[in-house]
Amino acid sequence: MVAKRQKRFAKMTNATKYLIYTIAIGEKFHGLARMFVNSLLHTGKWKHDLIVLSDVESIAGLPKTAKVISLQNLDWNLDINLRFNGTWRPEICYKSIIKHYIDINRYKYLLYLDSDILINSHRLNMLVDKASDTGNICVMEDRISVKNNNRVTGRYELSESEKIKWANVAINAGVVGFPGNDFGEEFLLNWESKRSNHPKGDFFSDQATLYALLLRNYQGQWQYIGDTIHGRQLKTYSQTIIHFTQFKDNLMEKYYKQMLKL
Q1: C-beta atoms surrounding 86 within 10 Å
Q2: DSSP 8-state secondary structure symbol assigned to residue 14
Q3: Range of the domain at 26
Q4: What is the CATH number of the domain that holds 186?
Q5: Which of 154, 178, 235, 238 could make an SS bond with 211 (beta carbons 3.0 to 4.6 A apart)?
Q6: How many domains does the chain have?
Q7: Per residue of the chain (262 residues), what is the pLDDT tens digit?
């Protein structure tokens, strides 16, 4: 166990910074990314690096603190033609491809956040500190769990016995943190290579594959990050990370302006 732990932290000696990254493809998500980044910097007081993976070279109105990396500039081996046209490619686990554009070993810990998230408190740096100290993969706790038998909770990825065993597990892939070392690289590689078992094939869900990956291969090495909530009403929340999901179109901007005053 000690040797395994040492291997997981072997490449962290010179890593002193954290990274938060998000994805913004298409005009709608460019707009969400602007709000996300501003809340990250102004409300969250984020002190470390920030990257936006996008379908464009730059996003108008985005603070210069955020580095935009265009996914059009591929320098990694994928036999596909990335012509986004503002749409997602369902066969790609976008959240894991960060490793093709940066050296994750530069960072002590990396945190992926969906662009339909707002940062709601100054505790963000402390939250990432705590996640980093665990050395584990950290995710957001979802509102629905395996027992709901939803497509995104592993309906097609988990066996019937696994659904019973892990009935109360509720993973949301909108928040995923991992260390910048061999362990983190292995996790990203495994997530990227995970393919959906959905019978139609094109209904890929990175959340469903994350369920299968963490529950089968990373027991004792993943946990909920905490201090998160799903934004479903226009009211003051105390949690640091608010994920608006299906309410992003009519609620996120209102919260951004009325509650965060940004």
Answers
A1: 12
A2: T
A3: 2-259
A4: 3.90.550.10
A5: 154
A6: 1
A7: 334 433 444 444 445 699 999 999 888 899 999 999 999 999 999 999 999 998 888 999 999 999 999 887 554 444 344 444 445 555 567 788 899 889 999 999 999 999 999 999 999 999 999 999 999 999 999 999 999 999 899 998 999 999 999 999 999 999 999 999 999 999 999 998 876 665 555 566 889 999 999 999 999 999 999 999 999 999 999 999 999 998 888 899 999 999 999 9
